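forwarding from the other thread:

> can someone predict this with fe (iii) ion?

sure thing
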Amino acid sequence: MGILRIGHISIRVMDMAAALKHYENVLGMKKTMEDKHGNVYLKCWDEWDKYSLVLTPSDQAGLNHVAYKVENDADLDDLQTKIEAYGIRTTVQPEGTLPSTGRMLQFNLPSGHEMRLYAMKEYVGTEVGTQNPDPWPDNIKGAGAHWLDHCLLMCELNPETGVNKVAENTKFSIEVLDFFLTEQILVGPAGDMQAATWLARTTTPHDIAFVGGPRMGLHHIAFFLDSWNDILKAADIMGKTKTKIDVAPTRHGITRGETIYFFDPSGNRNETFAGLGYLAQRDRPVTTWSEDHLGSGIFFHTGEMVSSFTEVYT
Ligand code: M3P
Ligand code: FE
């Protein structure tokens, strides 16, 4: 079957204690493990595998890698063949390279971002279990995020030189990783340059997204909340905890998601994303946003881009 869903994100943080406090108290994640190198592993209450976020100590913020879970171990061999045939080198990291995790197929997207695929991660169960479960656990902290939802990677885009890593990543993700395109922003004189794309493997509007910018980087990691009311409550928590908000609660035209953007203490951008804007079916026609409607695509209410939003990232 290939890729199932996003599995985890590994990011760098500059102050582990502050980062942990943020992901526990603002997002509501729980620490499940720490390794001998000081890397900290966390999960959300509604997730069943051991971790979805790895924090690694560093003197600089940013992305180490993003990992997606495949259905069967043999998918890793199939995908390795396909990725190599496309002209991208891969390596296989043996089981245990990351704790509680099986072997990982490692490669770089055309944009340079490191991606890993794995089939096995230790099952620990959700906070409510599987036997006559409550709808939510009693010990929810902060926003009580359900799960890691998606990531958005900034990819080099330079119309002058013709470098467009958004388009390259999109082509690779569709042709080799079997993602499907749900939405795109097309810009340029002919309106045919992919400046941003949203792609899915599951039935949510996106499991990964690529946006063009001056350099590659991590734009944000997003965590799922149920409803607009949960978004309001999450913003209340950010106010109470003096969390730096980038964009206060609003709605995306693209994906129809309800959103807040904010930063962890190291400056990694987070998003709380609510509402399954629509059921993303494989045969759904691709939604296109033109350059003159870009602002509405990103922030539907104001229809205006916020410059810091695309200029600041790790
Ligand atoms: C989302 C989303 C950008 C658009 C972001 C959209 C960075 O984060 O979840 O749909 O331009
Ligand atoms: Fe997002």
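The pocket of M3P (ligand 1) is lined by residues 152, 196, 211, 219, 222, 252, 254-255, 257, 271, 273, 298 (CB under 6 Å). thats all i got for now
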